């Protein structure tokens, strides 16, 4: 089992170090190789996704990824910005299916900004299409407008587009995931305004014919954003495009108490995957030893389950995370009165200990 370890920038290095510690005590044999990515790679090699890093990722069974980005790179040309590393990995590895579970652990019910009764027992799965949509659609750029409200003015544009096979394959992923859960899919679109998402809705409906045992509901994205905070437990599997999925998954993270708890998996057709916390590099708290490593540790569990075929080890990690939460250990993002405040390393070490 070959794992490419790409910690990246900011808190990425701190949280990935804890996940690696956890992987190392499972009694399994991994070949782990580490490489630079994002701003760190730009500093060392002049590019956020050097060929050597991409090669390592492509040859691995799975990639464990931290986070990339820092405000200090905002002025760089877009192809050199840290974010291009994760976008490049998604594109080059064909990681079209992004799983972002939002689970509210009973121990953290009080850490959410929502009322406990709204989120207690919450367990939803956002499935975000990850290699299409306005994120990758061409053409894009800047030019002088020849029409519109201000002909002759400078303008910028992106292209939202989805092909039928792209929608079909993510729809299949969603319906199949729903079969293992409560057999309910909400497809989120903006069919009332956008051609791309009327098409999305039509194609998802067509694919649904092959899954008569699964219930399908369509919802506009603005309404979905509202329902997520109004009655989040009404959702089970949510499937949507790249951009809506980006936004809704951040929103969903807050239902669980902290974005520091949310793992993610991004898979291609060969079940090769990239595993990363749903949060970013948090440069404001980088190097302080206060970041929550649990999202990354839980991402490592998803990696064991989805790409490395080690479901027992994945279960063990998830149980260990619950155990440390029950012990009352909390990084600052999930701290509440009466619990014990710990740092990144203490949290990682507590999980290692809880693994027994
Ligand atoms: C995410 C992030 C990325 C995205 C950024 C870092 C490019 O926000 O994984 O959700 O927009 O997809
Ligand atoms: Mg995002």
Count of discrete structural domains: 2
Number of helices: 12
CATH class of the largest domain: Alpha Beta
Give the number of DSSP strands: 14
Distance between the termini: 23 Å
Structure notes:
The longest helix has 16 residues, at 164-179. The strands form 3 sheets. Strands 2-1-3-12-11-4-5-10-8-9 form a 10-stranded mixed beta sheet, sandwiched between helices. A two-stranded antiparallel sheet has the order 6-7. Strands 13-14 form a two-stranded parallel ribbon. It starts with a strand and ends with a helix. The protein is 39% helix and 19% strand. It folds into 2 domains: 1-96 and 268-356, Isopropylmalate Dehydrogenase; 115-262, Isopropylmalate Dehydrogenase. With 356 residues, the protein is α/β, with parallel strands linked by helices. The chain is globular and about 65 Å long. Helix 1 links the parallel strand 1 (2-8) and strand 2. The chain binds 3-isopropylmalic acid and magnesium ion. Magnesium ion binds next to helix 9.
């Amino acid at each position: 089992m070959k794992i490419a370890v790409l910690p990246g920038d900011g808190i990425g290095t701190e949280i990935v170090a804890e996940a690696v510690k956890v992987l190392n005590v499972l009694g399994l044999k991994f070949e782990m190789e580490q490489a630079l990515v994002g701003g760190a790679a730009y500093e060392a090699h002049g590019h956020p996704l050097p060929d050597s890093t991409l090669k390592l990722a492509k040859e691995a069974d799975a990639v464990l990824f931290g986070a990339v980005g820092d405000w200090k790179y905002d002025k760089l040309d877009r192809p050199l910005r840290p974010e291009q590393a994760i976008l490049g990995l998604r594109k080059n590895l064909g990681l079209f299916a992004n799983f972002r579970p939002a689970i509210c652990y009973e121990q953290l019910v009080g850490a959410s900004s929502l009322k406990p009764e709204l989120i207690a027992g919450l367990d939803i799965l956002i499935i975000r299409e990850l290699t299409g949509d306005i994120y990758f659609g061409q053409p894009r750029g800047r030019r002088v407008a020849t029409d519109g409200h201000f002909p002759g003015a400078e303008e910028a544009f992106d292209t939202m587009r989805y092909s039928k096979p792209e929608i079909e394959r993510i729809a299949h992923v969603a319906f199949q995931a729903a079969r293992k859960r409560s057999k309910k899919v909400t497809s989120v679109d903006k069919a009332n305004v956008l051609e791309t998402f009327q098409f999305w809705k039509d194609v998802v409906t067509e694919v649904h014919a092959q899954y008569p045992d699964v219930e399908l509901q369509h919802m506009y994205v603005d309404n979905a954003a509202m329902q997520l905070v109004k009655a989040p437990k009404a959702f089970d599997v949510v499937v949507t495009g790249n951009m809506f999925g980006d936004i809704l998954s951040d929103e969903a993270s807050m239902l669980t108490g902290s974005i520091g708890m949310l793992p993610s998996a991004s898979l291609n057709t060969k079940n090769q995957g990239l595993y990363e916390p749903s949060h970013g590099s948090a440069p404001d708290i980088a190097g302080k030893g206060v970041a929550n490593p649990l999202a990354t540790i839980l991402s490592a569990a998803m990696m064991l389950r989805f790409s490395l075929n080690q479901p027992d080890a994945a279960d063990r990690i998830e149980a260990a995370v619950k155990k440390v939460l029950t012990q009352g250990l909390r990084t600052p993002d999930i701290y509440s009165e009466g619990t014990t405040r710990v740092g990144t390393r203490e949290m990682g070490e507590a999980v290692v200990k809880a693994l027994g």
